[in-house]
Amino acid sequence: MNYLMENNNEAHRLEMKTDTNRIAAQVRWAGLKPGMRVADVGCGPGKITALLHRMVSPGGTIVGIDQSHDRIQHAITHYGTPGISFQRKDITEPLDDLGTFDFVFIRFVLEYYRSRAFEIVSNLTRIVKPGGILCLVDLDHNCLNQYGIPSRLKNAIDAIMAKLECDADFDPRMGIKLYAMLYDLAFQSIDVRIEAHHLIFGELDFVQDYDWTRKVEVAAQNCGYDFEEYENGYEGFYSEFKSSFADPRRFIYTPVVCCRGVRSV
User: Fold this and answer.
1) What is the CA radius of gyration of the chain?
2) CDD domains this protein is in (predicted)?
């Protein structure tokens, strides 16, 4: 599968937008503890993998898993250390050769596999030890909750997301589905935590600007949408997006859903 956001600067974007304090709170809530063996599925450039390793030390180990050769090489170069290993794997295939884990973490990955998400979670269940924890984290209404922007721009963004859902197997509503996946796979002690991920109002900061601009430059431009609302196509859309996104009156939010369950013994 071709990754929707693939570009030469993707490792940089992922590292820049990662809030380690927020992720630490999420995995601590989910039950991550020192001494655990952990799988970080869809580890990207490895920044979160390194965080999780610090949290399971002393005595814990972690395997970062990603399908991208470039991201795995970046992770090895920047975060390779005793107790951390990185594996290039296709997560749509069984991962049984990695052994079993006390804690399996997958964040902002399932949204890129709308039609295969449950199959992936089923595969991950097989590498969770009985009594171990599976933690799923994803967004709901991704990029769809915006107010104070021109109606033409809002309609274009909604149409782009619908096209990505249809043609790129992207799911902007993945977060709402996580609980049912764990329920259907007979996990126990399921719990859910919801908080704001994107929360943009007032003056735009550099990280928000860079993250969203790269999404428009990569995903929106390459999705095949014709931008017929705009006389000069994508360039007109991009100009209106930049202007509206910089307006301190606009309000944007996206909920993040964290769902954890314990595999039956």
Assistant:
1) 19
2) AdoMet_MTases
Residues 4-52 have pLDDT tens digits of 777 777 878 888 888 899 999 999 999 999 999 999 999 999 999 999 9
Quick check: 42 and 91 in contact, CB under 8 A?
yes
Give per-residue burial for 88-107: e unless 16+ CB within 10 Å, then b. ebebeeebeebeebbbbbbb
Q: Where are the beta strands (DSSP E) in 84-232?
A: 84-88, 101-107, 128-139, 146-147, 188-200
Phi then psi for residue 211, to 5 deg, are: -60, -55
Q: Is residue 227 within 8 Å of 234, Cβ to Cβ? A: yes
SS3 130: strand
* 264 has a pLDDT exceeding 90: yes
Domain coverage including residue 87: 10-262
Whether 64 is covered by a domain: the verdict is: yes
Are the C-beta atoms of residues 105 and 29 closer than 8 Å to each other? no
pLDDT at 154 over 90: yes
